[in-house]
Amino acid sequence: MAALVESHRQSPFCLPPELVTDIFSYLNTSEMLISLSVCKEWKNTLTRFVHGPLWRNLEVPNNSGRGWPGPSFGVVENMLSWAGDGGANRIVMGRREMARETLTLLLNASPNLEHLEYTLQEEDFLLPSDEHRWKRLKYVAIHRSERAFLFNSPDIPGGFPRTFLQNAASSLEHLALDGIPIHWHKLHSSGLEPKAPFLPKLKTLRMKETLATGFALPLFNLSDAFPGLEQLFLSQYAGTMFLGPAPSSRRREDVWPNLKVLFRGNSLQHIRLDFGDPSWSCMFRDLRSQLPTSDVTQVSEFQSLRSFRSCGLPMSPVGAQNLISHGIQTGQLSSFDIAFPQSSPDHQKSINHLQGYEWLRGAPSIVTLGCYDFFFPSYPKDNEDLCLPQFLATFPNLQTLSIRSSRYRLPSFTHLMKEILKLTHLKTIYTYHYNDHPRVRFLRQAAEERGVELIMGERPQQWPMPPSS
């Protein structure tokens, strides 16, 4: 009897089946397959119909590099049988041998699919165009597709899967693409239709490009194809953006009324600009002079702004005030980046630039700040030379700092960081990708002593942004 009790203590399968499913749901596909090899009891139990949900989240990774090569075609067939009717809810597919056959198998067996993420194969491949087969599909992401979308027409092998996405229009809410389909850049009288799918329920669109194509991207045409868009992400090289001709059936003010990220309107909540062109620094400078009243916060298009992120846009303090002053007054703005002018080696220019942000000092809503390309005296002699640490110390709720400047050598930069640690109550600092230099180890130790996590890298970008009222 004692041995039986001990056996039940060690086996998770003495628990109710729904609890067993919940426990194993935290494992990924490779970990689940490893679990089958523990013993015959584990394999027989985990592949029972009652545990079918465990096999509906299928990840089939690249098998061309190091690490786990992923399940074979035969194992994928088995996993689909264990998933039960409806097949997989989530499919993540990398580059691999028999990729076309594997992905076709997964799609055909998964009418209840909700999430599809795949890497475009080197061989020509096109998603199936079966009419309205995937009625629950909400998320599609296509990786490594930039060159294929640039040189191929839609709906041919290797091209943009327009018909597949159009057939999912009744449910599709999120679309992420590496690259922009070439035909989206082209203007014609009927807008993007029918060259782009009409996706009325699409909420987020993310497009990344690493090649500077020089093609223009007409935003009004995008609004025809995706009228309900709430979040739009365009990478640094995602074409030249311009409005294009206004849709004849709508006013400009009615275009994308629900957009909260990266565009205009009082509902705008988050902005990220990665432009490196200094001519953009004046984009908000003259806003106040264009208004009939000096109270820009009452009519600003940025009344709901919660975050502004741009490490390469040295915006003037006056322009920044026009942009975020309402968010500071209402306590909504929690994240802001300050990029310093890059044209002068003079310390005084950075000092003057920071002094221009006097109106921002001590804002209680600020939780995250970024400071980029500043140039202060390497070894401060007085309080003015310490203006950056003192400025950061005024924010009572500041928790996260992103900081870097190419004008500093490592010794002077670590000295500055030590001063910042002394005067602030930070929790996390993101900075350079330094190697394991002795000075960096010393700085990391100093940060740990003050309870600060020092991360060598860029502050991650969340996408999609969390919804807020």
From TrEMBL:
Identify the Pfam families for this entry: F-box-like (PF12937)
Signal peptide span: none
Family annotation (PROSITE patterns): FBOX
Q: Which Gene3D superfamilies match?
A: 1.20.1280.50, Ribonuclease Inhibitor (3.80.10.10)
- SMART domains from the UniProt entry: FBOX (SM00256)
Where would one find coiled-coil regions in this protein? none
For the F-box domain, which residue ranges apply? 15-58
Highest taxon in the source lineage: Eukaryota
| Protein name per the record | F-box domain-containing protein
Give the originating organism: Claviceps purpurea (strain 20.1)
